[in-house]
Amino acid sequence: MGTALTDTASHHQKLVLIDYEDPQNAVGFVVGHNMHRHYWDTKDHYFYDDANRAPGFGPWQDISSKVRGPILYDINNNFVTAWGRAKHSSQLYLDRQDIKSSDFPTYGKLTAQFCRTQPQDILRDEKTGKGETDTSILEIYLKALGNTHNYVYMENQYFRYKPFAELLIQRAQELRDARKDQSSVNKDENIYLFVLTNAPKASTASQTTYETMDVLGQQQLMPETQRQKYQDDLKQRAILSEATKGGYTSPDQSELSTKDKERIEKVKTPQDIQKMTQDVEG
User: Fold this and answer.
1) Where do the domains of the chain lie?
2) Which one of 59, 184, 188, 236 has the fewest beta carbons within 10 angstroms of its own beta carbon?
3) Does pTM top 0.70 for this prediction?
4) Buried b / exposed e across 229-259, counting CB within 10 Å, b at 16+?
């Protein structure tokens, strides 16, 4: 995967700038959904509408922003930088160096920050050999999670990231420690986590979701993955034991809690998962 991403890295950015050379009238779009008709939708989310989506596409819940003002300067700078490093064309025309951030009038009272994540190899300077790591999207997620006091609501497919769960546990402990001597504050020392994510079909995606749930102590909510992981662990330890001539021993069923064993044993077919869901068992 590392080799493939190095050779064919994608910014995965969907940005549109219109009339940038005319700052007084310029407008930009920072797009969440993919830019073709299958991903088009309105806030009503009708199953059938005039978008003429192909069967199996939509309705979609996604966010795209129309922006004006000085933020357009940052969006253009991001595009020019990426274009130049990709070496697809001369950068001279795209530099637009005579246009400054101050040329764009402000609108309203909202401020905006442009965040991005780019592969380090893409940002490596050919002369010095030094790489520039830009992970500002990740950093802003971590900062937000680190500032929570009561609850976190996530609605995206990127919940499958174990460090998020580890940070929330650390933050919960910090709040407990801070509230020990504060009798007047809210007695509830819990952080409540609400997640609305997709149901990944790929085994690796399920595994990363499982790892996140495992850190949170809720691995039993994915009994099918839990059973598969346990079986894989048995095989792996058996292989290591053979390779090291008995240096490793296979775990027995006692390593699983009684509650987890009961859940795993119930899962034989996909219909069992559906039944457990109906019975509010995860």
Assistant:
1) 10-114, 117-147, 148-278
2) 184
3) no
4) bbeeeeeeeeeeeeeeeeeeeeeeeeebeee
Please spell the DSSP secondary structure of the chain, one letter per residue.
-HHHHHHS------EEEESTT-TTT-EEEE-SS-SSGGG---TT--SS-TT-PPTT--------EEE-STHHHHHHHHHHHHHHHHTSS-SHHHH-TT--GGGSPP-SS-------EE-TTTT--TTT-----EEHHHHHHHHHHHT-SSEEEEESGGG--HHHHHHHHHHHHHHHHHHTT-TTS-S----EEEEE-----SHHHHHHHHHHHHHTT-GGG-HHHHHHHHHHHHHHHHHHHHHTTSSS----GGGS-HHHHHHHHH-SSHHHHHHHHHTT--
Which pLDDT belongs to residue 19? 95
Q: Across residues 100-109, what is the average pLDDT? A: 92
Per-residue pLDDT band at 143 (split at 50, 70, 90): very high
Distance between CA atoms of 155 and 38, rounded to whole angstroms?
21
State residue 153 phi and psi, 5-degree precision.
-120, 120
CA distances from residue 11 to 15, 122, 161, 206, 224 in whole angstroms, order as listed = 11, 10, 20, 24, 34
